[in-house]
């Protein structure tokens, strides 16, 4: 039995990119750390919130790479000269990726109370009607 792809459907023209996008999203390999929420804040805006307790502003970076929002965290190891009797809070690094649709723009990022908020907006799609002239060949 052959695998069905978007190219298998003759009415879906030019959607090969969507299939690659789904594969890329599945390969993103986001582990469970740090936990995050995605909320819709209006019809055309969203907010991603990551729990980043222990990370300072300078320990975090937010970039857009090939239509992916990439949030990275790297804590400095400040354990030199310290003796821990128990160490349950590890200096851990992370990378979270979110694939962005065309028209989604990243707004501001705010860190407060151990939470990193990243606001996104989606442009209102414009309805376009185009008439194609038919000519004799």
Automatic annotation (TrEMBL):
Pfam families: HSP20. Residues 27-137 form the SHSP domain. SUPFAM superfamilies: HSP20-like chaperones. Keywords: Stress response. InterPro entries: A-crystallin/Hsp20_dom, ACD_IbpA/B, HSP20-like_chaperone. Belongs to the small heat shock protein (HSP20) family. PANTHER family: PTHR47062, SMALL HEAT SHOCK PROTEIN IBPA. This is Molecular chaperone IbpA, HSP20 family. It comes from Ruegeria faecimaris. The lineage of its organism: Bacteria, Pseudomonadati, Pseudomonadota, Alphaproteobacteria, Rhodobacterales.
């Amino acid at each position: 039995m052959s695998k069905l792809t978007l190219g298998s459907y003759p009415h879906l023209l030019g959607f090969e990119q969507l299939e690659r996008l789904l594969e890329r999203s599945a390969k993103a390999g986001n582990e469970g750390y740090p936990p995050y929420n995605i909320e819709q804040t209006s019809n055309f805006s969203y907010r991603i919130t990551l729990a980043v307790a222990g990370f300072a502003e300078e320990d975090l970076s937010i970039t857009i790479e090939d239509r992916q929002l990439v949030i990275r965290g790297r804590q400095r190891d400040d354990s030199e000269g310290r003796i821990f009797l128990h160490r349950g809070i590890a200096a851990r690094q992370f990378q979270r990726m979110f694939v962005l649709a065309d028209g989604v723009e990243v707004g501001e990022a705010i860190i407060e109370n151990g939470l990193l908020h990243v606001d996104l907006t989606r442009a209102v799609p414009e309805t376009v009607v185009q008439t194609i002239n038919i000519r004799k060949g």
